[in-house]
Each structure stands twice: as C-alpha cells, then as structure tokens.
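Lecture notes, unit on binding sites. The following record was shown on slide 14. It pairs a sequence with arginine.
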Amino acid sequence: MNQYKKMVAAAIAAHVPELDMREISTMIETPPEAHMGDYAFPCFRLAKTMRKSPQLIAEDISNKIICPDIFEKCMNEGAYVNFFFNRKKLAEEMIGQVLAEKESFGSSKEGNGKIICIDYSAPNIAKPFHVGHLRSTVIGNALYKIYSHLGYTCIGINHLGDWGTQFGKVIVAYRNWGDAKAIEKEPIQSLLDLYVKFHEEAEKNPSLEDEAREWFTRMEKGDEEALSLWKWFSTETIKELEKIYALLGVKFDYYTGESFYNDKMEPVLRDLADKNLLTESQGATMIDLEAFGMPPCLVQKSDGSTLYATRDITAAIYRKNTYDFFKCLYLTDYSQKLHFAQWFKVIELMGYEWHLDLLHLPFGRVTHEGRRIQTRKGTVVLLEEVLNGAIDRVKEIIEEKNPNLENKLETAVAVGVGAVIFNDLSNNRIKDISFSWETAFSFEGETGPYVQYTHARACSVLRKASEAAISQANHMEGQYLTDDISYEVIRKIEQFSDSIADAKNKNEPSILTRHVIDLAQAFNRFYHDHPVLNAEPEQRNARLALVAAVKETLSTGLSLLGIQAPEKM
Ligand code: ARG
C-alpha cells in the first residue's frame, strides 16, 4: 500500500475502532476534484454501527484526528474526511525518495518468500508465432517484472506446444513434399508451409489424416524415426524463436514444453483412476464434469494417445511439487476458457486444495483487418514481420529527424519494438484488439514512443544542466514546486506505487501503461510552461530535481512493461 494512504488509514483507525486498517485502506478514495483534497475517507458505511449521520461522523473524526505531518490539513466536506497534502513537503519527500531509490522506486517486499509461476508465450512448434502469441508473451513478461518488483520470486515457463497431432501431420507432409534445406533456413515458415500443404492435400485425400495420427502414435510410443524428425523440427524452431525473444527482450526460466511431461503422465492417469474419477466412452478416457455444467475432460483417446489437458494437469502437479508456487498464472486468449475451467476442476476433484491458486488470465483475440488470425489456411501476420516493419519505420524517422544520432540501430530496435509492445499492453487485457499497421506504428498520442521520447527529453535537459546544478538539485527546496502544474507531476509520481500494486492485483498491465502516459503528459505540460535551465538558480534546482525524478520514474515504469528507455532519440 502507498505509504501516505497507510498514514491516512492509521489516523482514521484511531477513531474508528470497529474497522481494521485493511478495511479502512480499501475505503480510501482519491477525490476527482482538487477542492476535495488528495485522499478522502467516506463515512457512509459507519452510519449504521455508530448510529449517527455520515456527515456528523465525518465532522467528528476531522475534529479529533491527528493529521499526519505530510498533510497540511484534514477537514470534512459532507460525509467525507478529506486530507490535503502539504505540497512543499510532498515534493521534497517524493523527489528525495525517487532519487535515492532509483530503479527500485515503487517496489515492495509484499511478495517475499512467495513463488509465482507464469506460463506465457507458449507458441506451437510447426505453427507460426503470430501476433496472438505476442499478447501472451508481452503480458506474461510484464507481469513477471511487476510481480518481481513487489518482491515475489517469479518462474517464467514457456509451455511450448511441442507435442501433439500436428507433428504427425508435419511428418507426413515432410516425407511427401519436404525439403531439409528450407527447414534449416527458415524453420517456422517452412514447417507452417508443410502444415498448410497437409490440410490442402488431406481435403482431397482423407487417408492422410489416418497416416498423421499413426505417426503421432509412433512418436508417443518412442519410435526412433518419428522422434528424430520431431526433435529436429523442435530444435530448429526454438533456435528461430530465440531470435524473436531476444528482439523482444523476453527471457524464460524454463523451456519445458508439452513433451517434457511425456514420461510424467502415466502416474497421473493412474492416480485419476485410483481416485475413481475416470469414465470410458467409446474407448476414450475422460473425467465426467456434467455435475459442474461442463463437457467431459478428455485425457486419453481410444488409441492411447494423450491430450492437451492431460499434459496441463500433469504440468500443474509437477510445478506444485517442484516449485510449491503461491500462484500459477496462465496466459492464453479467452477461447481456451473452457479448457482451463475443465482441468482446474479436475485438479480440485483430485483433492488438491491448491486448485484455487491456478489462475487463467484470458485475453482478447487479435484480429487483422477484421478477420481472425488463422493458422490452417496460412493467413497470419508473422510477428517477425511486424517487429522488423516497426524497426524499419523508426529507422526512417531517425534518418529524417535526427540523422546524427549515435547508436541508430539500437535506438530503432528499442523504439520500434517498444511501440509494438506498448500498443499491445495498453489494451485492457480482455478486449479484442484489431491489429493494424497504422496503430502499431503510431508515434504520436498515447503510445510507447511518446513515453520514450518524454524520457529522452528529460535526459537531454539533465545533460545540458551543469554538474554543479545537478548536485545542488539534491538539496532542492520544495516550495518552488507547489504550483498546480508541478504538483500534478509530483502527484503522478506519488501514485506510481499504487498503480503498480493495482496492475498486479488485477493482473492488468494496461493500468501501468495508463499511468506512465499520464505522467508523461503531466511532465510535458510542466516542461512546456516552466523554463528549467533558464530559471532563477533556486527554482532551477528544484525543477531539475523534478526532471530527474520523472526520468527515473518513467524509465522504471517502461522497464516494468518490458520496454527499453533510450537516453537519446
Ligand atoms: N500452445 C498453446 C496455444 O498456442 C498455449 C499453451 C498455454 N499454456 C498452457 N499451459 N496450456 O494455444
């Protein structure tokens, strides 16, 4: 919790014994208008127990309360107890804190000792890594950073789709029409081509489907020829995937894909049988979920092969035993809601209380020019194309606007990739997003490049200031920053930790993208209205200190979103 909210809650708690600090703090609001103060405590809920009107209670509390030092005053308005910051003190405290804590500003220890497993990205081998997978990757990566900032130990897992019937299809296609050189050169594209070709041919010749199933069964039974092809397809694909991850700046602690659970499913199936949870239907094995209003969860087909759900159940048990997670988060689009609901139920029926710690975090689909992104027919916007397109676009802009910039290529990568990530993260998680080249590459308005540019602008001001002025900035006087425009910037810095906590509580990085945009906009208003380097010395020092604090906060915010903050643009 924000340190000042905590103070407000403590001050209130002293006069409201029937509520504990925790409850009080959830009730504290940030009023919409300045005359209502900076934090407000509503008294409506207390009317019943205290047998007084909410107004009288608010008046009573504000008469008796000991106002924490950082606030200038505390008074009631209607049924609210309103707290007003002492702007001078807040400026000095906040700026001092940011400059001392630097990149750990806004962090906390709330998660110490707790493990969070995050299952994200998870593209399917022999299928393309498309903009749909981008959402999983960047949301998962941002959550990884946000949770880590709050003291949790995160374990990032790439549950690659490296097992399943699609391999049977690709093996058949490869044996009929494949070209080894093409696969080595461009594995993702060539394997996709084979996959698409398979479906075209199978329409004319359905027996290919049987052949594909057979090959997958051979893989599951350990057949050497089948496995060596599978291994080769996977290795080549992972090599190419790693290039994309490097470009995105995303890392995983484990690449334990679906195939990792091959030898771990049998004991789980046995356990399911021992617990009397399995039923058979037409030779297939499943868990009946009718009582819970869901279709059965299929765990084994009639030919003995296992399914996506079997591997998910096994993986969850493995992760619980191996990491003893506090929470395990799964990022996929919402079309998989039922799949997760089904197998989470199975974990519950197996008697594992920790089923409550499994969290599916669904996100909206990505459509491209109004159409769903599909694999089978090969209509996909490949992620690499998007990223390279963005980088090229930034290169052009740099050539036009700042041709003498050092590290042009690095900057183009940071800004181009940042634009794509920010564009994706600024959408509310559950919303469908329509991918268009226009929005992804927009450099104006509420975008990643706008925030990056604001950060670079702050860096540039600091570069121009003399060393002496910067060192004096540490002893700045808060009274020079009490005007409304400066105060707005300081308030955004003050609320930074709340927005990180909120983003974590709701598993919603867009809360943080919104906050860094707000901070960047507030700062640009400040910069537009207030000269910094040409101000009188004392005022200049205070303003420089604010510039430094904004720079620090923006760069931390971007880094929590998985976006770089170049110093020059
Ligand atoms: N490979 C799957 C897909 O692309 C996503 C896997 C998500 N993780 C999981 N444990 N099921 O749809």
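Take-home: The chain is about 55% helix and 10% strand.
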